[in-house]
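Continuing the batch. This is chain 6 of the set; chains 1 through 5 are on the previous pages. Same settings as before, nothing changed between runs. Recording input and output for traceability.
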Amino acid sequence: ELKLKIFLLPKDEADTKNAIIEIRAGTGGLEASLFASDLFKMYERVCNKKNWILEVISLSRSDAGGLKEVIASIKGKNIYSSLKYESGVHRVQRVPDTETQGRVHTSAATVAVLPEASDIDVDVLEKDLRIDIFRSSGPGGQSVNTTDSAVRITHIPTGVVSQCQDEKSQHKNKAKALKVLRSRIYELERQRKDEERALSRKNQVGSGDRSERIRTYNFPQGRVTDHRISLTLYKLEQILNGENLEEIISALVTDDNMKKLSELKL
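Output for chain 6:
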């Protein structure tokens, strides 16, 4: 009976889509950038295990070898439905390598998961775009382009901005920036519709609220806690290796379904 009720729940039209994942170092300086890198590796490992295709769209490294920001697309089956619960603030508690007193430091990284929009989902008109071409900046060596091939696109009606400078070809950078721009506009529109549809709904799970602290990774205790459902697993190493993230996601999906059922009173 419960399975039938869940089957009758209205489906999120974006669930079957591929996803764009954006990870940014938050508070905590170099340690935050190292944690952002750890999170990205975790999602890379999850993709490898599930045979999903991950393609980096843009990547900015920190001095310590961590990541200031990384944007990637993930392709496969029902990607957004699996990863949408990852949006929010991820917090880490651990002793940094540079800490001589053995004190635990807290830092954070933000994750945003957007459904990848197609031309059909978002009709972006050329006249609504401002395209700026500039020279890439970044670490020295061969990776810096000597030509003006970096692209920044601004969608004038919404003010949404996207840029890409990783490719040596201006054409490829424009295509990648446009892909991210479309997804950001699509997500903006989805959020607006959600707010209109459910002003009274306070359910934060899967809402993509990037200011909400969703999870803590505590290294001294080897635990991961998801604050939305008060779930704690003492499997930190396995989760960062991409092995047990599914356990958290399944619990979040179940919790989300139960909340939706109670609202619909099926």
